[in-house]
Specification:
Layout: H1 9-17, E1 36-38, E2 43-45, E3 55-62, E4 64-71, E5 77-84, E6 86-92, E7 98-102, E8 105-111, E9 117-129, E10 139-151, E11 157-168, H2 169-173
Antiparallel strand pairs: 1-4, 2-3, 3-6, 4-5, 5-8, 6-7, 8-9, 9-10, 10-11
Length: 174
Amino acid sequence: MRFQHALRGAVLVAMTAGAVGFAGSPALAESPSPWQPFRSAPFTQAAGDVCAFAVHGDIVTDHELVRTLQTYPDGTPREQEFVGPLVIRYTNLSTGASVERNLTGTGWWFFDQDGTTHGNGVGHFGIGIHAGNTNPPPGEYVLTGAFDFVLGADGTRTFSVQGGTVENLCQTLG
């Protein structure tokens, strides 16, 4: 799912925008907030950022939901859960080649006070790894299976997948 870059959609937008630092100690919400619609936005990654060519993502299907499971004392989310269908069409803007990928899944996001975001989930997830990252190298990745990710406050990103696959769309669309 994008939870965007997102997880991808939800995640895509959130991962592209970056995490926000929070002050104070965590407080467990009395109960999870109600599910709310979450909509991913189309995006464009410049040539040389994640792929050698510019990549555009169009949202084909988006029925994601999000709920807050824990908050900080000021009410900002400490932990959120994302679910629901998300399909994105990725296009190589140099050649016009495109593919659609299902990013439907369930994911949990944790927002640390230092600005780091980390999480895990099952299903499908998209993550853009930007220039300057070395492990993994830059790319527009689709993860399938059980996954973990870290979006460091310093801009670094990592992920792992268990019992699934990793596709680098830069190779697929290149």
